[in-house]
Protein 1
Amino acid sequence: MKYQSLFSVVALASTSSAHTIFSQLQVGSTTYPVSYGIRTPTYDGPIQDVSTPYVACNGGPNPTMSSSNIINVKAGETVKAVWRHTLTSTPSNDAVYVIDSSHKGPTMAYLKKVTDATTDTGVGDGWFKIQEQGYNPSTQSWAVTDLIANTGLHSITIPSCIADGQYLLRAELIALHAAGSPGGAQLYMECAQINVSGGSGNAKPKTVAFPGAYKSSDPGITINIYQTLSSYTIPGPALFTCGAGDGPTTPSDPTPTTLATSTKASPTAAPSSTVKPAALYGQCGGVNWKGATTCASGTCKTQSEHYSQCLM
Ligand SMILES: *[C@@H]1O[C@H](CO)[C@@H](O)[C@H](O)[C@H]1NC(C)=O
Ligand SMILES: [Cu+2]
């Protein structure tokens, strides 16, 4: 009994410390090194109070470092935010080098036009959403699960129609594994300092404020994900796309290329006989869990009534 409770405390601790940081930015063939042009914290913890100023560009419990660098980006180009468990995690030194697979949820990206990207705090109005991916009920897959499979690379297309100049690029993911009660969602975000050039327009997207864009009661923030979901509502404003009617864009703009994964498909649960064993750190049980109940690697350990996980 004693041994078991000690073990589960250790297992929970190792799970809850497997957070993440947007630590590097890939632009073309260049991967800017850790913290270059990005305000990274040394601690990889989340923001859980959506009403604090720290929901803009992190801070508070995770003090961020400043950077004097600004990263040049072309309008219309797709850049990749690199998510890593810690600032020193690599695929070869950390088994959970992106984020623990229990951390299911959406990915998003926002821009804010600023006068000086190295000093603007990001707090307040001016943010517009340029990328979002949520949950696909037909495959029962979350954006963060795809992000892990994609080695932590989060693709974000800089709209071609926005004005040239300096922006803060806020890449975000939300982990919903404990989001069943208010304040349980874990928000991860960092802000990169970028300089956009080569744009074709001067679009004026409708903007929102951080804090302000999210409420604790949003259906995509407080949600029990350990049930069959037929849809998921990504938090925040509608996605901005060029030609979508915000600002002086021309009708000849190309059709939007950044679209959220469709959430319209009807859910089709795989017959249990075809469910593959879960990978190490994957979910293997819990109330209403319809996925794998065995582990390809490790042993299935109960973490709570809602969540069992494959652990070594
Ligand atoms: C932004 O890019 C433009 C075009 O390359 C350049 O002229 C300008 O100096 C850059 N600004 C900063 C702050 O890097
Ligand atoms: Cu975490």
Protein 2
Amino acid sequence: MLADVDAETLCIDADALERVVTAQTRAVIPVHLGGHPADLARINETAARHGLHVVEDAAHAFAAKYQGRAIGGGSNLTAFSFYATKNLTTAEGGMLTGPPELLERARVLSLHGMSRDAWRRYEKGGGWYYEVVEPGFKYNMTDIQAAIGLAQLNKIDVFQRRRREVVAAYSAAFGAEPALQIPIKRPDVEHAWHLYVLRLHLERLRIGRDRFIEELTARNIGTSVHFIPIHLHPYYRDKYGYRPEDFPVAYSNYLRMLSLPLHPGLSDEDVQDVIEAVLDIVEKNRA
Ligand SMILES: *Cc1c(COP(=O)(O)O)cnc(C)c1O
């Protein structure tokens, strides 16, 4: 079951969640989209009332906080991604946080279903004996990836500071432009700023989002769209018979969103280039 998103944060809408929960529902998977934490207080409350698990998709939310606590620091099973594009990377891989018993089970499943001691058998003092306690996978992180991750971890504060500086520059430049809508940050969160999702007020422009992106490309600015809503993808559309307007908030925002370059390697000059390009396109294409 899909639930529509909140019009401001584009994270799951807690009211929409209430409407799709049924007796069959077992868990809810909120995405902290772009690094803005979802409304966990209401999601957790709904989940508790219906006896659901909450599995947080924190792929964008490393270093984010909700009501003063780090995302992943609570009692929900929380999945982070360290894929190449994320705020902290090990090229591929990720991390789970959550209740110790679930993490222990995940650890066993991630290496052939071998009991915990198997991880230690090549260490000094480690024995040869292990047991396969259930059929598992080979989903373990390599030591090389972990070494990259530890080096990244030392730099995460610097990375996040630069992301916030870039965001502040973009939002200062675009905040007063009536054709543009800048991303919001609710007061009770720390935003991980994985993405800077700019939204167009299409009624104030003579061009649509696709053309806006082409104009940016022509000015040598790379952008993307995060994301094409799940219900528009052929597999889900055809299997479940979804129409675009079944999730009107996700759909209408999809049509007017684009993600601007946002990463710690951006120079002040790069940021200025992006700002000038965006404002130039708006100026030349006002309705
Ligand atoms: C990247 C990403 C994932 C998947 O992460 P992997 O490490 O590639 O499995 C999941 N959810 C969101 C929102 C993502 O952006």
Protein 3
Amino acid sequence: MDILRKLAPVFLFASCVFLITDNNGVEGSHRIYSRLQNVPAGEVNQVHRTAYHFQPPKHWINGPMFFNGFYHLFYQYNPKGSVWGNIVWAHSVSKDLINWEALPNAIFPSKSFDINGTWSGSTTILPGNRPIILYTGLDNDKRQIQSYAVPVNISDPYLREWDKPDDNPLVVPSSDMNASQFRDPTTAWWHNGHWRMLVGGKRKKSGMAWLYRSIDFKHWIKAKHPLHSAPLTGMWECPDFFPVSLHGKNGLDTSRVGNDVKHVFKVSLDETRYEYYTVGQYEPETEVYEPDKTSPDGREGLRFDYGNFYASKTFFDSSKNRRILWGWANESDSADDDTAKGWAGIQAIPRTLWLDPSGKQVLQWPVEELETLRGQKVDLNDIKNMRQGKLVQVKGITAAQADVDVTFTLESLDKAEEFDPNWEKLDAESVCALKRSNVPGGVGPFGLATLASQNLEEFTPVFFRVFKTKENKHKVLMCSDAKSSTLRPFDIKQYRPSFAGYVDVDLAAEKKISLRSLIDHSVVESFAAGGKTCILSRVYPTLAIKDDAQLFVFNNGTEPVTVQTLAAWSMNAPKQMNQNLEF
Ligand SMILES: *[C@@H]1O[C@H](CO)[C@@H](O)[C@H](O)[C@H]1NC(C)=O
Ligand SMILES: *[C@@H]1O[C@H](CO)[C@@H](O)[C@H](O)[C@H]1NC(C)=O
Ligand SMILES: *[C@@H]1O[C@H](CO)[C@@H](O)[C@H](O)[C@H]1NC(C)=O
Ligand SMILES: *[C@@H]1O[C@H](CO)[C@@H](O)[C@H](O)[C@H]1NC(C)=O
Ligand SMILES: CC(=O)N[C@H]1CO[C@H](CO)[C@@H](O)[C@@H]1O
């Protein structure tokens, strides 16, 4: 047992759960499809099924989790249907973050303190290498309360079975709280004799990260002030709070404090269904977290991802000294489509996350293990001076299942279009919707046309467009546009946003910008400028499927662009992706 413990580094991960409380078909933010909640999958349709993104064997997933010499992913799952409902904590393990083995459900409603639901939470490793889960249970009255679970057999390397002791719950909502707005406990951190954890909440219209402290992990006392809150942001789901190093890419244990770290605070905003984070300073003695001036709270804030990405969680991977971020990407098709195809929801590729040298934002990059799936490679280097309207096909790889990394260079930004001052009021997504890849520009649009049919009847462009502001500054917009991703008529219920974010690069000085896209049948997951801006899109082509999908590089701006380097790989599927379904 001791030997096992020594050999087995522990990785913890947490998932976020959502809440259900409305009565007109939308609970919290999950639309409730009572008629579909218990409809099992028939023939599972594989056309848009992802190959190397984590997915449930079938039915519904929403959020990850953690653990031991093995990576453990606990995720919110409906064992009975492909829409939200009947939520349990499903459990998969992996040695490499690529291949996954499904285990029996770890936590499911069974006791008075969670009989009406087992929602999201986190894991913490206690001293002596003992993992513990904190989660939100819904009790008999459907109050949201925080409970814990521990492994039944700590010597079982898979930690298959979890026990929810009878001294639960640990924390119940206080009398001044709304018991339907109190959920998603974080990984706890230790400082100066006390454990701390956060629970997401809301008071009036303000989002709240309630702070609790404990000496023994059993008795928790609410601190006088929340660790953080922000007006008019609504319910805060899935808070995450962790240190990042001021220097280098290494991740830090969640309890690290000191002069050489900053802290990142993230919430999933129920009202927008997007996530926002701030970078700031945490003083454990006074229990104050202060975001830096450069990172505002709420809807104006920074985002880990400007696409389909929610309920994310980070964990510290002590075996490789890195912090890993893992988000959940929902489907963009309809509930009926999900029921027909028999599954819904995937996990984004796990991303290593660290502080940008500027200190103003984080950088994210797919974990290095993903590269083990790279197969056939194609290089297209030094495509000089691609003029407006130029389209170059990347041949020789499986374009529906690929990893592509391209660097563009530009001679000059003189032709950059003017940034209309009225757009200051718009978000990036609205600007992208006005300036799509088929709207010719000055510097850009240039980028990749992914999941494309041969004649571009369907394609999902991922591209840059450079603007010049009144102050003569450049603004670089990154778009991942789903509008033209499918020939299915627009009246079919499907979400086709022109996802976009700005990229904080000095293109006038650097004269180059990189783009990496992970393409996986119904996923286009992209990383601009080494991970400064990331966008995950879910799309459902009808022609650009399997071997008929194509990949192009394009320029639709008057300023010629050069492809300095382009490397593209066919991606293999992992050997094992939860096929061993035993529950
Ligand atoms: C605990 O797990 C270990 C390792 O798998 C196993 O050998 C042992 O029999 C288990 N103990 C119990 C009580 O199930
Ligand atoms: C408590 O929260 C629920 C869920 O957000 C909401 O529907 C309800 O109106 C709230 N109750 C009060 C008294 O504010
Ligand atoms: C999931 O998909 C729907 C559209 O189908 C979208 O409106 C919603 O905001 C998405 N995101 C989350 C986090 O639920
Ligand atoms: C480039 O612009 C032309 C003209 O609008 C359009 O037909 C074409 O589809 C655009 N290319 C891409 C990749 O969007
Ligand atoms: C409020 C509510 O829905 N309570 C339910 C909690 O679960 C018990 C046992 O399944 C039900 O009997 C309650 O109706």
